[in-house]
Write a structure and sequence with these properties.
Helices cover 28% and strands 25% of the residues. It is α+β, with helices and mostly antiparallel strands and 153 residues long. The strands form two sheets. Strands 1-2-5-4 form a four-stranded mixed β-sheet, with helices on one face. The protein is elongated. The chain starts with 8 loop residues before the first strand and ends with a helix.
């Protein structure tokens, strides 16, 4: 197995909040996998799994994400060691958050979204644009005839 970090792969030596942030970033972008028990250079380190380890990780992911992520998890034997692959697909309705913060994946790193980026991601996932929202208090007097004429040209 030859692993390296990319837009859809993250390598971690252990489970932590950083794993969950990567899952959120993947879900907000194109999906991806986090491999636990693998160093940044791709070297297999392995991970010790107890009886409830995977269930505890799933619960932590579910509680710390909004809407809740329920990823696919595989335990892989590699070079006599266990590694864990946690996968998520791109979510259709975005953005998802980790503890109220929003991330996406850019190349091989996670990027926290600004307020305007959060808005853009939401509008794109809902296939809306800013001009699809009605302004309830608007009247015909609010329309600038010169601007309309310019638009029509």
């Amino acid at each position: 197995m030859n692993l390296q970090e990319s837009e859809s792969v993250e390598l971690k030596t252990s489970f932590s909040d950083e794993v969950i942030i990567s899952l959120v970033a993947f879900a907000n972008t194109n999906g991806g996998s986090v491999y636990i028990g693998v160093k940044d250079n791709g070297e297999i380190q392995g991970v010790e799994l107890g009886k409830e380890t995977i269930q505890n990780w799933l619960n932590e992911i579910k509680v710390k994400t909004q809407p809740s992520i329920i990823p696919l998890i595989d335990i892989i034997e590699e070079k006599g060691k266990q590694i864990v692959c946690i996968r998520v697909n791109e979510f259709p309705v975005k953005p998802l958050s980790f503890k109220g913060r929003f991330y996406n994946r850019v190349n091989n790193s996670n990027h926290q979204l600004s307020v305007s980026e959060i808005s853009d991601v939401y509008l794109q996932s809902m296939q809306y644009s800013w001009d699809s929202y009605a302004y309830a208090d608007a009247t015909f007097d609010d329309i600038d005839e010169e601007t309309v004429q310019h638009f029509l040209k």
